[in-house]
Amino acid sequence: MNAKDLFENNCLPMCWLEDEERFVSPRKDLQTLLAELEDIKNRIDELTSKEWVLAKRMKFYKEGFTTH
């Protein structure tokens, strides 16, 4: 039984009006998935670097620019 059959048999709430094709994700080949994974890794590295810089700036803000 698919979502449409369930809906027509009142097994789903009336607010369930989404098109089930919208939820079907297209299949991707391995190279596409690996490229997407590499993009994610690069974004994580970039965000980690920004986090480090912000942490240093926050430390200077809280402690001041004193030398020890």
What is the arithmetic mean of pLDDT?
Answer: 80
Task: Name the structural class.
Answer: mainly alpha
Which residue ranges are poorly predicted, with pLDDT under 50 across at least 5 consecutive positions? none
Number of domains: 1
Number of H- or I-type helical stretches: 2
Number of strands: 0
CA distance, first residue to last residue = 72 Å
Series of secondary-structure elements, N-terminal to C-terminal? HH
The percentage helix is 55-70%
- Percent of residues in beta strands? under 5%
Radius of gyration: 25 Å
Main β-sheet description: none
* Overall 3D shape: elongated
Summarize this entry quickly:
With 68 residues, the protein is mostly helical. The chain has one domain (3-63). The protein has two helices and no strands.
How would you characterize this protein structure?
This protein has 68 residues and is mainly α. It has one domain (3-63). It is 59% helix and 0% strand.
Question: Secondary-structure map with pairings?
Answer:
Blueprint: H1 3-8, H2 30-63
